[in-house]
């Protein structure tokens, strides 16, 4: 009788702690997802997938915390709270809570404020039959927002520049009037500016290899720099980049030349994308290191905050404008049910971010980011 009683007690004790063990495992997984960006994807393949899983894991952990509190499982709740505290720096990168009262004061002189927008415009829908001939909603969004400088990714369509894109025809006069200085790169890295600039390609021109295993027919640059000449002799370097896409929409109907070794599964394409982005981010970081101190770096990273690529490009010197003055989650990608902020604005030097906003609208698969900077101390 005593033997059966002892077995029953052990069974009850094990059952009692099962919930706490599950909460501990959930907390550890949350921490692992949050800091997976510290690991090179080439060393540990699951790391970048874990980074993408941080937000879903965060939501699940909040639900588990609520359950723990409602069921009065205090130890489980404490374990989850400790995991939240451990991942707070990463949470702030994804969802900062800055408000108007916390914003830095703006200079009285409007010429000391520079509004910079970064936007993957999807070639202004040039290749989409349903939208390609209609007035571009993306360009309307840009003109209404009135940035001083617009840095674009996918700004052209395979060498087809903006004056040849039908959806932009209604806006040609306004573009020329408002943005007299512009440059349209064949790879889609383009700029429209109210101020004059000189164009500086970064790195060596190369054929861009994709996760599908083919080379594009044209040479391209990973990034371009623009040395902006601002009023009162001020100058500033802007860097625009676009990193490797996931190629999630790849299908059998696409006319692409695929290497024999390619496994056209979505997971395999994503794995190769992570690797290629890591290599490209390393090259961009070299260009950043060789740039002047006063610098704004922005573009379509195709990766989330705190990821390996994000950390490579940020280094120890760049600040994330959204973390500093943005507010909320603010996804910039709007397709495939992947609501992530994969477009970023970084800066360093004698600059100060004043405010940041994510604008909704347009007809691209991205939303733009608009950041206002105080450039009062930015001088030659």
User: Which runs of at least 5 residues are low in confidence (pLDDT < 50)?
Assistant: 252-256
What is the 3D form?
A: globular
Supply the number of structural domains: 2
* Mean pLDDT metric: 86
Overall radius of gyration: 24 Å
Protein described:
The structure is a single chain. The chain has helices at residues 2-34, 46-52, 54-70, 74-86, 88-94, 137-145, 172-178, 266-289, 308-314, 321-325; strands spanning 113-120, 149-153, 181-184, 190-193, 197-202, 206-209, 215-220, 223-229, 235-242, 295-300, 319-320, 343-348, 352-358, 369-374. The chain is of the alpha+beta class. It has two domains: 2-94, no CATH class; 100-248 and 256-374, Deoxyribonuclease I, Chain A. Helix 1 packs parallel to helix 4 (74-86), helix 3 packs antiparallel against helix 4 (74-86) and helix 8 runs parallel beside helix 9 (308-314). The longest helix is centred in the N-terminal third of the chain and has 33 residues, at 2-34. The radius of gyration is 24 Å and the shape is globular.
Which terms summarize this structure?
alpha+beta, 10 helices, 34% helix, globular, six-stranded mixed sheet, Deoxyribonuclease I, Chain A, single chain, 380 residues, 2 domains
Short description:
This protein has 380 residues and is an alpha+beta fold. It is built from ten helices and 14 strands. The strands form three sheets. The protein has a six-stranded mixed beta sheet. The protein has a six-stranded mixed beta sheet with strand order 5-8-9-10-12-11.
What's the arrangement of secondary structure elements?
Layout: H1 2-34, H2 46-52, H3 54-70, H4 74-86, H5 88-94, E1 113-120, H6 137-145, E2 149-153, H7 172-178, E3 181-184, E4 190-193, E5 197-202, E6 206-209, E7 215-220, E8 223-229, E9 235-242, H8 266-289, E10 295-300, H9 308-314, E11 319-320, H10 321-325, E12 343-348, E13 352-358, E14 369-374
């Amino acid at each position: 009788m005593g033997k059966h009683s002892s077995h029953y007690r052990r069974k009850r004790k094990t059952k009692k702690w099962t919930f706490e063990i599950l909460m501990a495992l959930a907390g550890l997984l949350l921490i692992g997802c949050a800091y997976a960006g510290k690991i090179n994807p080439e060393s540990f393949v699951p790391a970048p997938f874990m980074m993408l899983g941080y937000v879903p894991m965060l939501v699940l952990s909040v639900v588990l915390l609520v359950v723990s509190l409602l069921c009065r499982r205090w130890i489980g709740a404490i374990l989850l709270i400790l995991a939240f505290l451990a991942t707070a720096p990463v949470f702030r990168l994804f969802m900062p809570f800055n408000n108007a009262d916390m914003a830095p004061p703006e200079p009285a002189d409007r010429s000391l404020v520079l509004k910079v927008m970064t936007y993957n415009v999807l070639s202004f829908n040039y290749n989409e039959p349903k939208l390609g001939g209609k007035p571009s909603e993306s360009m309307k969004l840009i003109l209404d927002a009135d940035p001083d400088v617009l840095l674009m990714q996918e700004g052209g369509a395979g060498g087809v520049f903006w004056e040849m894109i039908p959806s932009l025809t209604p806006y040609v006069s306004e573009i020329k009037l408002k943005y007299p200085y512009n440059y349209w790169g064949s790879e889609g890295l383009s700029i429209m500016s109210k101020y004059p600039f000189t164009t500086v390609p970064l790195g060596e021109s190369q054929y861009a290899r994709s996760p599908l295993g083919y080379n594009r027919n044209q040479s391209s640059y990973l990034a371009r720099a623009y040395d902006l000449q601002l009023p009162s002799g001020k100058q500033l370097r802007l860097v625009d980049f676009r990193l490797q896409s996931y190629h999630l929409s790849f299908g059998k109907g696409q006319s692409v030349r695929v290497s024999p070794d390619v496994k056209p599964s979505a997971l395999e394409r994503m794995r190769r994308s992570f690797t290629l982005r890591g290599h490209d981010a390393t090259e961009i970081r070299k260009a950043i290191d060789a740039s002047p101190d006063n610098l704004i770096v922005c573009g379509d990273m195709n990766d989330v905050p705190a990821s390996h690529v994000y950390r490579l490009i940020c280094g120890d010197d760049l600040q994330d404008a959204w973390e500093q003055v943005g507010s909320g989650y603010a996804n910039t990608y709007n397709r495939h049910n992947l609501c992530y902020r994969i477009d970023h604005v970084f800066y360093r030097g004698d600059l100060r971010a004043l405010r940041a906003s994510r604008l909704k609208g347009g007809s691209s698969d991205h939303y733009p980011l608009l950041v206002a900077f105080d450039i009062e101390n930015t001088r030659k």
